Amino acid sequence: MSAQNFNPKNGELLNDIAFIYSVENFEKNNQWNRLVGKLDRKSDSDAEYFLEYLFYKTHQKLLKEYKKGTTFTNLLENGSYDCVSASITYSVLLKYFDIEHSIIETDYHVFIIAKVNDKEIIMETTDPRNGFVSNAEEIKEFKADFLPNVNSTQLNQKESIGSPVYGQPNSKTIYKEISLRQLSALQYFNQGLIAMHNKDYKLASRRLQQALNLYESERIDMLFKIVAP
Fold first, then answer.
1. In terms of Cα–Cα distance, which of 61, 129, 50, 131 is closest to 94?
2. DSSP per-residue codes, 121-145
3. Which residues pair with 175 in a beta bridge?
4. DSSP characters for the chain?
5. φ and ψ at 17, to 5 degrees?
6. Given this structure, which CATH class describes domain 3-178?
7. Residues 6+ away with beta carbon under 8 Å from 9
C-alpha cells in the first residue's frame, strides 16, 4: 500500500497527531499504512463486525510484545506496547474511521469503550486474545474492576499506568474519560516515574513537565512538584 493511505480528514485527529507522531511519520510507516489499507477495505462492513476486525487485525499486525513504559513511537518501530501506547493506537484508528469511543483513565490502567449501534464495547488493548468485550454482563464486570472504592480518598500517584497492582484494596481512586492528547501525556508520566525509580530526577522533571504541558492532571502535578528543581 502507498503512504497516502493514511490521510486523516478529521481536524481533531490532525491536531492530536501533532503531539503523538507527525502525519509525515505516519505516511512513511509502511506497516501502519498496510494496516490502514486492510481496514479500509472492510470499513463498509457491519459496524460491530468491523470494530472486532479492527481490534484483532491491529493486534496481529502492530502489537507484538508487551513492555511496560514503552511509547507509541516504540510501538510503530518494534511492536512493543503497553496499555497507554496500545490505546493511543486504537484511538487514532477509531478516530480515523469515525467510530465513537471514550478513553478511560484509571489509577493504573487505561482502556477504550467504543460505541456502535448504541451498544458499548470494551477494547482491552493489552489482551490480544480476549480484549474485545461485547457481552453486556462482562462489560459491567470489567468496569466494576476499575470503578473507585467508596472509601478511597488518597490519590494514587507513584505507580505507572499499566502497573499490575490495579484491583487491589484501596488502589482505585480514578475513573474518568480523557482525550487522545491527554492519553499521550501519560506516556511522559510513565517515563517520569521510571526515571524517578532510577533516581534520575533531572530526566523525571523533564518528562513530567512534558506530561503537564499536555494534561493538567492532579497526580502529574503532584509528582512534578516533588522532582522539579
1. 50
2. EEE-TT-TTT-EE--HHHHHHHHHT
3. 106
4. --GGG-----HHHHHHHTTTS-HHHHHH-HHHHHHHHHHHHHTTS-HHHHHHHHHHHHHHHT--EE-TT--HHHHHHH-EE-HHHHHHHHHHHHHHTT--EEEEEESS-EEEEEEETTEEEEE-TT-TTT-EE--HHHHHHHHHTTSPPTT--SPP-SS-TT-TTTTSTT----EEEE-HHHHHHHHHHHHHHHHHHTT-HHHHHHHHHHHHHH---HHHHHHHHHH--
5. -60, -30
6. alpha beta
7. none
SS3 per residue for 66-94: ECCCCCHHHHHHHCEECHHHHHHHHHHHH
pLDDT in tens, the chain (229 residues): 333 467 777 778 888 888 888 778 888 889 999 999 999 999 999 999 999 999 999 999 999 999 988 999 999 999 999 999 999 999 999 999 999 999 999 998 999 999 999 999 999 999 999 999 999 999 999 999 998 876 655 555 455 455 544 344 456 889 999 999 999 999 999 999 999 999 999 999 999 999 999 999 999 999 999 998 7
The ranges assigned to domains in the chain are 3-178
- Residue 210: what are its φ and ψ, rounded to 5°? -60, -40
